[in-house]
Design a protein that fits this description.
It contains nine helices and 14 strands. It is of the alpha/beta class. It has one domain: 4-Layer Sandwich (Metallo-beta-lactamase, Chain A), CATH 3.60.15.10. β11 and β12 form a beta hairpin. Bound molecules: zinc ion (ZN) and fe (iii) ion.
Length: 255
């Protein structure tokens, strides 16, 4: 079995700890910082074998070198980010698979937020670690890519099994919900999710993971084809990529 735990850090980052109960192998996804990971590993009496990095931003790789020094773990990241991921040992790209015990994690390249962004998909455990590419009710900002690039990246994630659990790197859901609600006010799936998110956050609980099925029914960045959303953004006749770009632009202006 793959045991997945969530470590909240900074204001809204999540670090994920993955432990294969059969082999005892452990990995961490996007360690913002070494200390909270060391604390979590120590309390569980686990070693650390791997770091999986989705992209090079500091809030995702800040703990790399401290953890490598302490555990001698292997750091896995995108070939495209070979010069930007501290301590990288293994470089991967589209179609590669990395193993944690017997669990395979398929690498999917998802440029857009950054040019070298990758996500880790574990089909047997129905888990997707998507960094800053996809958020619940949102998606990553375009720092190093075009709207078209990120749209293509999101199409790959939309094609995964709908019962996939999505583990995003940030707790942005409540803020995203306010924007999504304006674009898609008559969507009852969205209204139900907004209510659930408000309840979870009121108890200081995470809104993640979330199923891909829920995101497909509620996330405006996966629903740029929807007629109601298009009416709200004044984009009834534009292409899918143009509609997506418009939604991304509106979100960037939204506070
Ligand atoms: Zn980022
Ligand atoms: Fe981030």
């Amino acid at each position: 079995m793959l045991d997945i735990s969530l470590i909240p850090v900074l204001r809204d980052n999540y670090i994920y700890l993955l432990h294969d109960t059969d082999s005892g192998e452990t990995a961490v996804v996007d360690p913002t910082d070494a200390d909270p990971v060391i604390d979590a590993l120590t309390s569980r009496q686990w070693p650390l074998h791997y770091i999986f990095n989705t992209h090079h931003h500091g809030d995702h790789v800040g703990g790399n070198l401290g953890l490598k020094r302490r555990y001698g773990c292997t750091i896995i990241g995108a070939t495209a980010d070979r010069d930007r991921i501290p301590g990288i040992d293994v470089m991967v790209g589209e179609g590669d698979t990395v193993l944690l015990g017997r669990h395979g994690f398929d690498i999917i390249e998802t440029p857009g937020h950054t040019s070298g962004h990758i996500v880790f998909h574990c089909a047997d455990s129905r888990a997707l670690f998507c960094g800053d590419t996809l958020f619940s009710l949102g998606c990553g900002r375009l720092f190093e890519g075009s709207a078209g690039q990120l749209w293509h990246s999101l199409q790959k994630l939309k094609a995964l099994p709908p019962d996939t659990n999505i583990y995003c790197a940030h707790e942005y859901t409540a803020i995203n919900a306010r924007f999504a609600g304006l674009l898609d006010p008559d969507n009852h799936h969205l209204q139900a999710r907004i209510e659930q998110v408000a309840n979870l956050r009121a108890q200081n609980r995470p809104t993640l993971p979330v199923s891909l099925a829920t995101e497909l029914a509620t996330n405006p960045f996966l629903r740029e084809h929807d007629a109601n959303i298009r009416r709200h953004i004044g984009g009834e006749t534009v292409s899918a990529i143009e509609a997506f770009a418009l939604i991304r632009h509106l979100k960037d202006q939204f506070h």
